[in-house]
What does this fold into?
Amino acid sequence: QSALTQPASVSGSPGQSITISCTGTSSDVGSYNLVSWYQQHPGKAPKLMIYEGSKRPSGVSNRFSGSKSGNTASLTISGLQAEDEADYYCCSYAGSSKVFGGGTKLTVL
Amino acid sequence: QVQLQESGPGLVKPSETLSLTCTVSGYSISSGYYWGWIRQPPGKGLEWIGSIYHSGSTYYNPSLKSRVTISVDTSKNQFSLKLSSVTAADTAVYYCARDSPEDSSSPDFDYWGQGTLVTVSS
It folds into this structure.
């Protein structure tokens, strides 16, 4: 299985909205609405931000939202804040296995 | 509060077997959920290694399957990872995490350990 494809980097100014894409295939993202998103700050463990495509765990800000179209899942962060600067990873069920994306570095300008 | 803690050698020689244990507190492994291992080479992305249910049912990353064994010890509330025939490419921070409930295939790693760096070097 190949890693899901994410842009290496995205950036935005405080208060703006950004979207991170996660492109897979008909064997993973396209076949299941089972994509999760993780935020990782330097030196820290990843944190679950979105699960099952669009659901937010308790305690995660509603500024974070997830969606999917075809073989591509997306994470949107609205009202960017300085603390949102981190690496973001998508992960999809792929039929008896799980596959992560390569990660996207978000810079808040 | 669910907490996970990885433990094991930080240095492993090439061709040998990497062994790590994850101790879970605040939640009984036997109560449900799959439990997984994920790794992250220095400066690189995350890679799912495999997951196990308290019954012993496992599923592995196809690219690592021939070298990976994940086991569970419910009496100690622990699960373990063994990765054989390691090379420098296996150098990474290894995380354990709580995976999805039994009735879900969603990759919902909601609780993570702090991670442990394992270096493969002679």
Observations:
- Chain A touches chain B through 27 residues (CB under 8 Å).
